[in-house]
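Lab meeting, action items carried over

1. Structure of the six-component assembly. Owner: GW. Status: complete.
Input record:
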Amino acid sequence: MTEIKDLLSGMNTVVRPDGRKVDELRPATITRHFTDVPEGSVLICCGNTRVMCTATFTPGVPRWRKDSGLGWVTAEYAMLPRATAERTDRESVKGKVGGRTHEISRLIGRCLRGVVNMKALGENQIQIDCDVLQADGGTRTASITGAYVALVDALNWAEAHKHIRSAARVLTDSVSAVSVGVIDGTPMLDLPYVEDSKAMTDMNVAMTGSGKFIEIQGTAEHRPFDRDELNTLLDLATKGNRELQAIQQAALAKD
Amino acid sequence: MTEIKDLLSGMNTVVRPDGRKVDELRPATITRHFTDVPEGSVLICCGNTRVMCTATFTPGVPRWRKDSGLGWVTAEYAMLPRATAERTDRESVKGKVGGRTHEISRLIGRCLRGVVNMKALGENQIQIDCDVLQADGGTRTASITGAYVALVDALNWAEAHKHIRSAARVLTDSVSAVSVGVIDGTPMLDLPYVEDSKAMTDMNVAMTGSGKFIEIQGTAEHRPFDRDELNTLLDLATKGNRELQAIQQAALAKD
Amino acid sequence: MTEIKDLLSGMNTVVRPDGRKVDELRPATITRHFTDVPEGSVLICCGNTRVMCTATFTPGVPRWRKDSGLGWVTAEYAMLPRATAERTDRESVKGKVGGRTHEISRLIGRCLRGVVNMKALGENQIQIDCDVLQADGGTRTASITGAYVALVDALNWAEAHKHIRSAARVLTDSVSAVSVGVIDGTPMLDLPYVEDSKAMTDMNVAMTGSGKFIEIQGTAEHRPFDRDELNTLLDLATKGNRELQAIQQAALAKD
Amino acid sequence: MTEIKDLLSGMNTVVRPDGRKVDELRPATITRHFTDVPEGSVLICCGNTRVMCTATFTPGVPRWRKDSGLGWVTAEYAMLPRATAERTDRESVKGKVGGRTHEISRLIGRCLRGVVNMKALGENQIQIDCDVLQADGGTRTASITGAYVALVDALNWAEAHKHIRSAARVLTDSVSAVSVGVIDGTPMLDLPYVEDSKAMTDMNVAMTGSGKFIEIQGTAEHRPFDRDELNTLLDLATKGNRELQAIQQAALAKD
Amino acid sequence: MTEIKDLLSGMNTVVRPDGRKVDELRPATITRHFTDVPEGSVLICCGNTRVMCTATFTPGVPRWRKDSGLGWVTAEYAMLPRATAERTDRESVKGKVGGRTHEISRLIGRCLRGVVNMKALGENQIQIDCDVLQADGGTRTASITGAYVALVDALNWAEAHKHIRSAARVLTDSVSAVSVGVIDGTPMLDLPYVEDSKAMTDMNVAMTGSGKFIEIQGTAEHRPFDRDELNTLLDLATKGNRELQAIQQAALAKD
Amino acid sequence: MTEIKDLLSGMNTVVRPDGRKVDELRPATITRHFTDVPEGSVLICCGNTRVMCTATFTPGVPRWRKDSGLGWVTAEYAMLPRATAERTDRESVKGKVGGRTHEISRLIGRCLRGVVNMKALGENQIQIDCDVLQADGGTRTASITGAYVALVDALNWAEAHKHIRSAARVLTDSVSAVSVGVIDGTPMLDLPYVEDSKAMTDMNVAMTGSGKFIEIQGTAEHRPFDRDELNTLLDLATKGNRELQAIQQAALAKD
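Predicted assembly:
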């Protein structure tokens, strides 16, 4: 990571509200078997952001996928009403799923499908549910990182229960995600809410364990960014994802 | 409680799947400050049932209540999709709140309003959210018992922040709830899912700390019950609520 | 009923707005064959409350019940917009069924299922519709009482049309329901709207012809009640249901 | 009406299922004060079709009409689930109002607005509700005919309660409606369901007491009609409306 | 058309905002193959009103029509949000289809079914979509006129692709529609928005190429009309439809 | 663009289905004043993809933005039912906006807000509507490119009508967007549907006239991509956007 250090050399004097360095992740923990019933059940905490990720394995696929020989992975994201500082109305009560929820659910689904061999999964479905218990920025990236671990547990369960031949063959790689952004001109890693709301550029980057990109979503509603800034942000994201993947592996190594 | 002992004398030989006696509660714990943001945030575990209960204090009341000088307390109940053995579709995705959810949300709201002096609360609103993380029977009664503790925390917060003069004056009493039922002819206390699904008669009883009833909901879709059975069930519920109220008080005594 | 007389001795001096005694039902009438088309069609009037109850018999059961050998009974309750003093918006126009409607529909369904032998019904479905033409308190209990008569007519129709072997074998008992409540400290039977809105405790009690309970829903949002009050209320409800069942039988005896 | 007799001379030998002549209305009755609460409440029976029509008078108008000095009249039509031979699912449960319901509600509203002087009504609103208790063809025309009588009662109530100066000034005319159609080449008046479902051409005609048209809705999905047939149908409709208006006047003459 | 000239002789001095005579259509053009993908795709312009009409041919029919040997034709109408002077909210965003949309969709469907032989169509479905790009009065009648041409193209496509034996046998006639109305006492043909909004009587008339009526929808919310006015309006509509049918034929004659 | 030529040197032998080179845009045209009523109305054609983009200027902002001194820009995207090879059901009929629609509407809104100075816009709102008349890949990027031109027209209208002081001051830059992707290992510019559905990696890139990024959305559900591929894709997108911006400027230069 020496190259990032150089790139960011001038930035390290920046003081972040929580005392972190610009290229430093918030403390992250992953708790497996958070609840007892689902095939995979994970609590991921990234700073004060806490997301419960479950993976449900079901033999069979939706109708449009029948007789294809291929499996399916899908995801739904939601926030509990009081995950946020001000209570958010329930989408079930409003009667419709909002645009932001839709957008994030689709993102999570794509990221996980990006590391799944659908043929090896066979005609089985995995449904990921990411429910945010507490939100402090980066809920979508924490969801992806936690969901991957729940997915592994669900596949191992399916292997143990003879629904699939080999969990290892289904997984082509691992995946994690992290947010990066530019605040007052300084690129930073892993933004909590207080920084996220001030970011001029905001980017979510999902990467595989082998260091490739699955999703890059950069948005600069408040100030466009140039190629150099992009490169710095991608360097930061690469560093962050590498560290998150180590935490994923450590969690999965425990029994 | 000597009279229950007598009434139930013949029943104590019954073996319940989890080894409990017929008049024994499942282990129950109440964790306050489960999340950081809400004015009240409680995790209640009753056996394997786990519910997160938050209380949101908001100055002001809904429009229909304006200028009445009275406050308002309302509640919403929901299950996370994988709280259950089989995944349940999200009501937000289905686009409507189901009948069972409506029924339970209304029950929780009535029980809490039953111990609140709306005049002392003034024109302020408390919104209770009960989200079931894991369901193993008795989710609605656990919600009531946990929500009361979250309510107390929210009122203490409101007193500390000068929104109300005195939390103690708002609360006219405490409230807890427990389920009882008749299984294979035997009345039992605090039914987990495996028992609940076999119960001929099922009753949820919410009681105040002073031992009075706020709600009795007895239903006997599968076999009507007579006055004697009713009395035994109410005795069991009285015993269970007394014990749950001790757990509530112990949790509130901690700082 | 001598014991009620004693219990209530001090209460009989209370003057109710409509001149009734505390343990006196409103005049109740049940008109069968109110409309021509349904298998069962009943108009029930309890004081000024008027509910049209129809029972629709359909061979076959919903998909989740297929191949079980069991039948199904379900109910829907609704109010016409101008059943009430102020016009209520239609739920069809609002686009969703409200919590109160859901709660009552489910209550009616459970009460009727409580007296039906699903095996004897076979794989047939009965749908109960209770539409309130005019509401003056007690609409849910009137719905149950009227729906039972419509159910009997529908079963007799099904027997006559050879859909079931014997209506008598399907019915394990009869069912009626009545409201009771505590007003200004006095327990009373069968509350019209003017009393219902002042009741501190409000209880709906559904009982079988053999005097057992199918549902007890007591709610005391405004003042908790103790065991003695509960017992008095149940005595009143027993008296009221006995009288309503006589009216049901008389209606069914007519051709 | 001699000219119709001539036009139809050859047709009078046609035997209709219920024995009527081609230019004969079904027996029609109008019962005022059918329920007690609404400002206007009418039960209209046209043969086996029975519709409950209520008129709700409310001071004030919807927001878009404020400060116009003008009133508003609107209507909603609905069928009870078991008004029909096969049970129809409730639109409240389906979560949306169907196209047919929308179309009819709008038709009823236009017809009544066609005889109301909005300036004389002042900033007051009348909401018409037409709920079909039993459907046997012609429910929309029966709704219009019955709703007019409910409207008159509501306006008289409003005059008596000093909400408007004069009911007579608000009403510019009376209105009724009837269906006509061509069956097997023969034009006929007032079609019950059995005829309506066979009609090649189907027309609903709303007319004022002074014999003018407010709405003509002719539809010939199954066989186009020519100008001569149109004229015969309009003659029949004129005759039918004249008779219905006599029934309206007779009902309004009673106290 | 000499008879209309006489009837209208006194009216021809009326100056319309766009300089037309009272019995004169707005310039109308029909462009086939407006988009490439649909089986039929037409842009119809009637003055400033522009509607895109597509016809989708699909083998097979909806479930309720299966095994009948008959085809089905259905239509949906919608306005783009900025077809109107003030932007209209999308019905997809509001979550429900409005009454006006429902009413018009049903009208278009009936008109087209009125010229289709369902037996000759066989078990195939045609879905008409009419999307208003710009609205200046008469959008529903322009939709019908344009949709007929799209329908012909779709049927010719189906014949060429061997889905049906003969497009000519499916079509029993052609159909077009035009609006007429009474403005300040003067009957007029083909009303743009500025006239439509002032019309006391408003009528939409769909006619076949052989001069018969398929739909007449006359509404006189603002002033009833008598038989003479009706006859004049029908004469105007006949003239307008004859001219529109010539434009349809000319468009279809081009390759 | 010499550097792209080099990077792509080996790729230029690839034959695309429509004969284009890998770094070649489809023919693109922008027609202003496509309809007469909106403040901005544009038809953009990119190959066979055709989108109608309107911009509605409304004085005032939504409630949550009031008294901020800032304006607001929002967007809605939709497809006509027969824009696609198989007809797509209308979201208005389904009763909810789908996830894809939500995602794209939000993307378009962010891109346009990225070049708008909300302070200079003042408390005024611009609503962008992008309705896809025909879809052949790249509908979201064509929407952004077309919507920018509609936005400029609407701002010029607002300046001419004195709603804003200066359109030029509101616009901080221009914006266009284009899709790029990797097909069979080859990065390509501007994918039509036939290529898009085979792309392993798919990226939409919105850039300003000054060559900065506003949005990068790269997704690799089917095969992750590395940093080199990313750079090639961004080079292609830069070239494409530069050419689209020339087309935008040419369209805006016309009167």
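2. GW to write a short summary for the group page. Key points so far: The helical segments of chain B are 2-7, 91-94, 99-113, 118-121, 139-160, 167-170, 193-196, 227-253. The radius of gyration of chain B is 18 Å.
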